[in-house]
Amino acid sequence: MPHPDPEELSLLALYEDWEDGDSREHLRVCPECAADFAALRRTVDAVRTTPDARLLEAPGPQVWAGIHCELGLSEAVQEDPLSGLEGQQAAERESLAEPVQLQGRTVSRPEQRRGATGPAARRAAAWWQRPGPWMAAAAAAVLVTAGAVWSLNQAPRPLAEADLAPLAQYSAAGSAKVVESADGARALEVRLSKDEAQGYQEVWLIASDLSRLVSLGVMNSDSGTFQLPAGLELSDYPIVDVSDEPVDGNPAHSSVSIARGTLNT
Ligand SMILES: [Zn+2]
């Protein structure tokens, strides 16, 4: 069977009783997926344990400010949702600390001795003191981890890369990289900041001594992907060149280059 997708792996990691015999069997035979699964399990174990709320300090306002800024949230929710909580807790501690007058005798409340476990304290429990949100946080952490694992495994690793710098008269800069797909085919991905060609852009691989060159194709916008001829040695043609070609029917390089760079083979 194919590798389970990241959502499926997350569900398997989150719920030990998740019924998916095929995927569980796959984990036994596929070391790749088993490794991903093990990473997800570690995340679940790390986050799922509900912390003892009594040991937790309320996070300071800078924590919310950081979250607010990082997520680019609106001004409507700029105020720390936990602000005032500290004062509230202090007030509760004070009221609990007040001894109760009972038939002329002064006794302390039982909940005061047990710590903040009285009904008032339970009602006031903040989101970070309740178990529910921690499960949600665990699930979110697992999904984020799954996404990261997935994208790492899916992104083709570049075989070589080059920065493309503009030549005289031009200002377009960019990058090029050679990627290899699962079936071993190689492609050159080219990206420039703009298309400055008077005619059209053509992409080339050129030998270090500029004596030989291979045309990879036409690039009509600021980026393009070009298949490499099978058997072409990258080290023989390490220079990536984007030229400005007139529409004149001449297949040779116009000798007008817009941007150029050398692959780090
Ligand atoms: Zn697998």
Give the proportion of residues in helices. Answer: 25-40%
**Percentage of β-strand residues:** 15-25%
**Rg from alpha-carbon coordinates:** 31 Å
How many helix segments?
A: 8
Largest sheet: 8 strands, antiparallel
Q: How far apart are the termini?
A: 36 Å
Biggest sheet: strand arrangement: 7-6-9-10-3-4-5-8
- The coarse silhouette is elongated
Structural class: alpha+beta
Ligands: zinc ion
What's the SSE pattern? HHHHHEEHHHEEEEEEEE
What's the β-strand tally? Answer: 10
pLDDT under 50 segments (min length 5)?
Answer: 96-122
Kindly report the average pLDDT value: 79
Topology of this structure?
Elements: H1 6-14, H2 21-29, H3 31-48, H4 61-71, H5 85-97, E1 100-102, E2 105-107, H6 110-114, H7 119-123, H8 131-154, E3 158-166, E4 174-180, E5 186-192, E6 200-206, E7 213-219, E8 223-227, E9 239-245, E10 257-262
Antiparallel strand pairs: 1-2, 3-4, 3-10, 4-5, 5-8, 6-7, 6-9, 9-10
The structure holds zinc ion (ZN).
Zinc ion binds at residues 3, 26, 30, 32-33.
